[in-house]
Amino acid sequence: MYKYCVHIVTGICLLFSLAGCENYTEEIRSREQRAVAAHQAKEPIFIGVAWPADRTDRFIDGLQLAVDEINENGGVKASNRCLVCQEKQVPCGRCQKQGLYCEVCDELSAQCNHCKREQLHQGTLWGRRELKILLEQEAYMTEPDSRRRNFYQQLAYKVADRFIKNKDVIAVIGHPPSAEAVPASVIYQYHGLVFLAPASTNSMLTHPGFDTTFRTIPNNEQMADQLAGYCALNGKFKKMVLLNVRTTYGEELVDSFAKSAAQLGIDIVHRSSFFANTGDFRKIIATFKDKEFDALFLAVSAKPTGALLIKQLREVDITQPIVGGDALYSEALLALSGNHALGVVAPSLYKPYLNTAKPFIEKYKQRYGGREPDGWAAQGYDSIKLLVHIIEKADSTRPSVLANSLRYTSLWMGATGAHSFQDNGEIIGKQYSLNVLRNTGIFEVMPEAHLPYLFHKLAQEGHNTIR
């Protein structure tokens, strides 16, 4: 974690040097320019999306489904408000775009160069506006661990720079890896863009408490706590082996799991870590093969490392159940492991048993030829729907107004569950569904697997309240 913090500090310094920003005045100017552009824009509404082309999930499919649904229903209902009193304003009755007259303040909120003051009364309120996505799909490349983090940082600067140069962009969704999302969040904070992070789970994302950054997925600590709860309360595991890849994701997830597991009475009999480019795990496996344990926890991505590790575990007759983090949730896991990954349990945000998810699932299947959505499709769908909900609720497209509205949203229900946020942008109350890999190659949702953990947390909170 310390090394990761050093990288972030270095990234912030590099950001300032790349942007050529010398002082706080530049930050204010950049934010003001974006606010004015959003305030004066008539249509459409632009949202930036950063999602790599070489990911095999269905995030973009779900996101595009939401965009098309909104536009087919007439677009986003958004009439901006007066900069002075925040009441609704009307466009110039003559040129319809340059001057904005507020009937409440009885003054121009933006000077019209073509029309006289008295002519502005003829305008009407803006109605619905088209939603447009600006998609950046820079492909990731496989690099050794020593170079990967630098690659993600440079990618974050490259992609974010394209968005911040477009003053019509009011928000950005994406940057899946935490090593990319964290430095990107610094850039968006600096330039005043709302940033929704639907895939980054590292706690460093919300640690600075930026007012424009919001995570829409439980972080590593929350994920690990739920998985430890499943192991203790559902699996009744008493002794476990923990294995993790040496990345910020793997280290934070396994550390958090070990902490939660200990609190739930699980004894950790062995821990080992390895590099992502490790090809032979037999030496590591030999160090715990003869020990007594009930299950294994893996903090590693499915492709290719996780699949290879599972294959080699099964080949040496280690048959105990395997539980993993969300990075292990992949349709490619069964095939890559040579069918050795049957029964692996991993979390996702796909919850078909929720009433709020059923309309989304029906629309998705209808749009994509009966194909079942995955958790990322639901997350992409919710990301757009949440932003549009906030725009319409705030009746504004100004990023600062949207950020405040997001932060103080009491509850919004989407296909992936409940959405509300802490002051630092961390999501509250959202949980993963737990899934088991079947011989079809598909993870099958276990609808009631989260209930023992949920009841345990409710009882724990009630006990703390009484105390």
Within the largest sheet, what's the order of strands?
Answer: 7-1-8-9-10
Question: What's the β-strand tally?
Answer: 19
**Overall pLDDT confidence:** 83
Task: Estimate the global geometry from the Cα principal axes.
Answer: globular
Tell me the CATH superfamily of the largest domain. Answer: Response regulator
CATH class of the largest domain: Alpha Beta
CATH fold group of the largest domain: Rossmann fold
Proportion in helices: 40-55%
- Radius of gyration of CA atoms, rounded to a whole number: 24 Å
Looking at the chains present, what oligomeric state does this protein adopt?
single chain
Gap between N and C termini: 34 Å
How would you describe what is shown here?
There is one protein chain. 41% of the residues lie in helices and 17% in strands. The protein has 14 helices and 19 strands. It folds into three domains: 2-77 and 130-217 and 357-419, Response regulator (Rossmann fold, 3-Layer(aba) Sandwich), CATH 3.40.50.2300; 81-125, no CATH class; 221-348 and 431-466, Rossmann fold (3-Layer(aba) Sandwich), CATH 3.40.50.2300. The chain starts with a helix and ends with a helix. The chain has helices at 2-19, 24-40, 59-72, 145-164, 178-191, 220-234, 248-263, 282-286, 302-315, 333-336, 358-367, 375-394, 399-407, 451-466, and strands spanning 45-50, 76-77, 90-91, 100-102, 107-110, 128-129, 131-136, 169-174, 194-197, 213-215, 239-245, 267-274, 295-299, 322-324, 345-348, 412-414, 417-419, 433-437, 443-445. It has 467 residues and is an alpha/beta fold. The longest helix has 20 residues, at 145-164. The strands form six sheets. Strands 7-1-8-9-10 form a five-stranded parallel beta sheet, with helices on both faces. Helix 1 crosses helix 5 (178-191), helix 4 (145-164) runs parallel beside helix 5 (178-191) and helix 12 crosses helix 13 (399-407).
